[in-house]
Amino acid sequence: MFAERYRNRLLSQKQAGLYRLPPEVTGKEGKHLFFAGRKLLNFASNDYLGLSTSDELRRLVSENFRRYGASSSSSRLVSGNYAVINRAERAYADFFGYEEALFFPSGYQANLGVISALFEKGDKIIFDKHIHASSVKGMVLSGAEFQGFNHNSLPHLKRRLEKGKPAYTAVLTESLFSMDGDLLDVRGFVSLKREYGFFGIIDEAHAFGALGDRGRGLGRGIADVAVGTFGKTFGLFGAFVLLPGALKEYLFNFASPLIYSTTLPEAHAASALDLLELIDRCDDGRKKLREVSRLMREGLRREAFQVAGEAHVIALTIGEENRAAEISKGLLAEGIFVLPARYPTVPMGKAMLRISMMATHTDDDVNDFINGVKKVYGKYEEVC
Ligand SMILES: Cc1ncc(COP(=O)(O)O)c(C=O)c1O
Asked: I need a surface site. Which of 6, 98, 143, 269 has the fewest CB within 10 A?
């Protein structure tokens, strides 16, 4: 019975152009990816500053694992609350300008754990319709009432707020949106927060390390809680939540993804400490990332492509799901790795190529990408 249901579901995924199987990658080296026996230019990585394969981070992380061992071997609440983790969390709170920080095994667990623990029946969560799936799952698990506002539309958020009870209303949004690549209107958000006094959670997964003064993101001094991941600009894995001290205490007691999961190893925390120093001195990398991202956006727009995005995440709108998949496949032949984002990651009929830029991309890489897209896009239109 079950087998038949799964087979039918997979078949309809295929017919709708929504079928997914992770492509097997045999390795990566800076901005390159090894796939199907070829070396490809990677435009699908969240390693925005290129730290993950840098010699310096490789050395630091491997020294930390040699020194501390491979695993924490316990949840944080049993025997996994190591001093180095507390030291790292203190440093993150200080660097990003929040009272406290709390590490999670992943950003998905962080959003799910924080949102499901902090809110409950009787509360209201108002969320940007394009927030990450992990935040959506957290809302659903919380039991709170929730209501979406149109993506990045603060007038729509305001209309939603007019109908709420401010004391029990939370707003969830992102500073740099993971798929659309657009930015939160921070000033508008602050003024609504002042007017309505809601509790604000800003997911800065794609901004921390890459945007803002010293890479400290866009929501400092505004968000009540901010979420960052180590798996993107920081070139590592795991996540950190920045929050008031009282909420950290609360989450130790009520956030089950934290309580019932093996905590990240000491070597991770030691590497997180090393990373803060690296991130702090990456101004040149951030500048390079800004410049190469601007070149890509402007170049694509000059060729009349429909492009969204204001920073290093760029969305090239394709529309129909199968067409986006074909174009991505065609680009592989041109030596370019970029994947289509399709429903349910983005709305149905709004499939796109999600282009992520790295500080290590060059002007030539941008030109190669644009020429490749022009060639494949044109070819595919002829076939249709
Ligand atoms: C906005 C956003 N939040 C959270 C996450 C989850 O982070 P992680 O990959 O560390 O689980 C992602 C990752 O895709 C993301 O894009």
From this structure: 6
Q: How far is Cα 268 from Cα 88, in angstroms, rounded to an integer?
A: 9
Q: What is the pTM of this model?
A: 0.95
Would you say 114 and 138 are in contact if contact means Cβ atoms under 8 Å apart? yes
C-alpha count within 13 angstroms, C-beta hemisphere, residue 364: 2
pLDDT tens per residue across span 235-254? 999 999 999 999 999 999 99
230 CA closest ligand 1 atom index = 10
Taking the domain 71-280, which CATH number applies?
3.40.640.10
Distance CA 151, CA 184 (A): 10
Q: Which of 124, 130, 232, 288 is catalytic?
A: 232
Query: Whose alpha carbon is nearest atom 4 of ligand 1?
Result: 107
Ligand 1 centre from 376 Cα, in Å?
30
> Please, which pLDDT band fits residue 382 given cuts at 50, 70 and 90?
very low
pLDDT of 384 reads 41
Q: What residue segments make up the domains of the chain, in order of their start? A: 21-49+283-383, 71-280
Q: Report CA(178)–ligand 1 centroid distance (Å).
A: 8
- From the list 142, 178, 271, 328, the catalytic residue is 178
232 is catalytic: yes
Quick one: pLDDT at residue 380?
A: 62
Fold of 21-49+283-383: Aspartate Aminotransferase, domain 1 (3.90.1150)
- Give me ligand 1 centre to Cα 111, in Å: 9
Of all protein residues, whose CA lies closest to atom 8 belonging to ligand 1? Answer: 107
Q: How much is the pLDDT for 381?
A: 60
Share of residues in the chain with pLDDT > 90 (%): 89
Mean pLDDT of the chain: 95
Residue 102 to residue 241: CA distance in whole angstroms: 5
Q: Would residue 137 be called left, alpha or beta, if left means φ above 0 and alpha means ψ between -120 and 50 degrees? A: alpha
